[in-house]
Amino acid sequence: MQKHILSIETSCDETAAAIVGGDILSGGVRDIQIASNIISSQIPLHQLTGGVVPEVAARAQLQAMLPVVDQTLYVWQHGSLDGWQQNSSQEHLDKIDAIAVTEGPGLIGSLLVGTEFANAIAFANDLPLLPINHYEGHLLSFLPDAPEASWPILALTASGGHSSLYLIERPGQYQLLGRTRDDAAGEAFDKAAQFLGLAYPGGPSLSKLAEHGNPSRFPLPTPMQHQASLDFSFSGLKTALRRQVAALPDLSEQDRADLAASFQQAVTGSLISQLRRAAEATSPSGLAIVGGVANNQLLKAEASALGQKLGLPVYFPSSGLYTDNAAMIGVAALFQLASGSASRFAVPTARLPLPESTSIEERI
Ligand code: KG4
Ligand code: ZN
Hints:
binds zinc ion; binds 5'-O-[(R)-(carboxyoxy)(hydroxy)phosphoryl]adenosine
């Protein structure tokens, strides 16, 4: 039966809402469609401080929340924002079957805004509410463009807040194989970019600078390459870059480009070598690279090459679903709806591990 979910995501510095539709079958979902996807980014605000200040992020969430949901409903009905006026779209809530919201992990103040809002509209409109784990959203963000994907799929999540490897046995069943021990991959890009005097968020600006750089001029170590664990660690690499920057007092544009290229290669090399070892250990039917860092062209190229070598399809997020968004939360919610999950109020939780099917020790 065709269902439409209004989903809300406010875990960090994006205020996002989406309408996601899908055919709910017994235990599954078919024909997933993203009918509307609005993201209000706070990037210009956080560029003033070079990073996210949680209090500032939460206030900005509150300012954006209502207009973003209103716009999402409007675009769903009218196909674009042409003619949109504030508070013009509430009647479209009649056509919604359920509300979904990110309950964690994330910044507690930011999460509070989205969960309070979702609880209120679900209650006022007598709609079921599905609280969703943000990781699960990222893990399933490739699915709208990959209806043919068969399970299990090995997913590398690389974003500003997380770097992890999960075996997705099927939607709703996840096995954690490796996680970050310190900085997440995107966080490492952001900090490295700061050392090189680049704007926040650092990933896009660092990878652009790296296009003209020579990655072999200042070789940096590839983290975790020689360890048995499938975890990630980027803080040592960050320190190595900082030392290298300090050792070159007058950085030329070429020096900065060469350092950026080395750093990008070391991060990518570590992500790909852990992905390859996890694939060898778990024999998946496909690979997925998700999260904001999956935008990185070098990572994309190396992941595609790995897939080709292993004879596996490689999936990336559907367009607009790389960095934080609500459409991926709606996708995860469709599967929860299909599995018969009960409606409940969302309670924001800063640290919220994804429930696992089995532990890594049992697996490897
Ligand atoms: O998925 P996302 O919104 O973060 C969290 O959910 O935490 O991703 C944002 C992160 C930022 O750290 C940003 O620097 C990084 O993704 N990023 C990139 C690129 N584009 C975005 N990192 C490397 N290369 C890129 N092209
Ligand atoms: Zn995220």
